[in-house]
């Protein structure tokens, strides 16, 4: 029996859904971004609805009618992909990434170097590191790997 859940992927219904995305984001980040302090988490959380979510086209992964994950794309760049910790490892992230790749075969993304689970996830989906930045987009000291699909 498979461990996968078949999520229903759909567009975001608008800003009324954003609080649920912040909850999902926090659950995912607290489970995987062990390099962040509680103050760092609050810094990024405070910017989710104001800065980050409005800047992307959001896709939602519903499980039993409830958002369990989401992704955000700007141009051909995957800017965010987060799955609620209770749903990690069940194929939701793969479904969201698959949809993004279908819509953007030239998809690129950035991932925290200090999040080896995410780096491994993207590598398993054919992404390779094509560059590195010592700081994140906010200039904070969290190295970022720039990834793209392998030409192979």
Automatic annotation (TrEMBL):
Q: Give all residue intervals belonging to the N-acetyltransferase domain.
A: 7-152
Checking SUPFAM superfamilies in the record gives: Acyl-CoA N-acyltransferases (Nat)
Superkingdom, natural source: Bacteria
Q: Which keywords fit this entry according to its UniProt record?
A: Acyltransferase, Transferase
The chain's coiled-coil residues are: none
Q: CDD domains in the record, alphabetically?
A: NAT_SF
Name the record gives this protein: Acetyltransferase
């Amino acid at each position: 029996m498979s461990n996968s859940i078949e999520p229903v992927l759909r567009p975001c219904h608008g800003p009324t859904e954003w609080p649920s995305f912040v909850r999902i984001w926090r659950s995912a980040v607290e489970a995987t971004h062990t390099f962040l302090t509680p103050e760092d988490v609050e810094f990024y959380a405070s910017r989710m609805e104001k800065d980050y979510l409005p800047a992307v086209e959001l896709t939602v992964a519903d499980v039993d009618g409830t958002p369990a994950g989401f992704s955000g794309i700007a141009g051909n760049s995957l800017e965010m992909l987060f799955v609620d910790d209770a749903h990690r490892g069940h194929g939701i992230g793969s479904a969201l990434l698959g949809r993004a790749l279908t819509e953007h075969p030239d998809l690129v993304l950035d991932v925290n170097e200090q999040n080896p689970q995410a780096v491994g996830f993207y590598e398993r989906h054919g992404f390779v590191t094509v560059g590195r930045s010592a700081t994140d987009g906010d200039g904070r000291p969290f190295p970022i790997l720039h990834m793209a699909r392998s030409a192979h």
